[in-house]
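2024-03-11 09:14:02 INFO worker-7 job=invfold-0412 stage=load source=structure_tokens
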């Protein structure tokens, strides 16, 4: 029997990295508790929400405990008719958020306004979005993976 060496191609390595990252990309607005409620929540995100709705949901769902010890500057650049730029700064259990751009972000996420909403509602998986170029993530991948826990 002949021994074979195993070497990952560049595409395979990218796919492996994307798979790791995809599990950490935000599913903001998705409740961790799937139990039905008595009355539908008018503020719950759906595929017709806007990026502004997604960021407001993030604001409401901030997890201070998960952000302890985290110091990160996130930039979100969303193209499209209701897109725009947003930023989040997480600093050891606290955060600030706003519209516009910040200098020297640790992580930058780029997508369309529509795809960002679909990512937030779970209608578009992070793995698929990343591999197809519908979501681009640059910067510190470790900090990118923490985003989902900080804003569940």
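2024-03-11 09:14:09 INFO worker-7 stage=emit residues=152
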């Amino acid at each position: 029997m002949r021994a074979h060496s195993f070497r990952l191609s560049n595409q395979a390595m990218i796919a492996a990295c994307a798979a790791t990252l995809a599990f950490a990309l935000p599913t903001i607005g998705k409740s961790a508790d799937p139990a039905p409620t008595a009355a539908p929540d008018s503020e719950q995100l759906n595929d017709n929400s806007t990026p502004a709705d997604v960021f407001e949901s993030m604001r409401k769902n901030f997890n201070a405990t998960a952000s302890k010890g985290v110091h990160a500057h996130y930039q979100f650049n969303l193209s499209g008719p209701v897109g725009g730029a947003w930023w989040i700064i997480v600093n050891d259990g606290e955060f600030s958020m706003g519209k516009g751009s910040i200098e020297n972000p640790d992580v930058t996420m780029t997508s369309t306004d529509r795809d960002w909403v679909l990512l937030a509602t779970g209608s578009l998986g992070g793995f698929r979005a990343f591999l197809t170029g519908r979501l681009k993530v640059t910067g510190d991948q470790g900090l990118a993976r923490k985003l989902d826990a900080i804003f569940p």
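2024-03-11 09:14:09 INFO worker-7 stage=report msg="DSSP finds five helices and five strands in the chain."
2024-03-11 09:14:10 INFO worker-7 job finished
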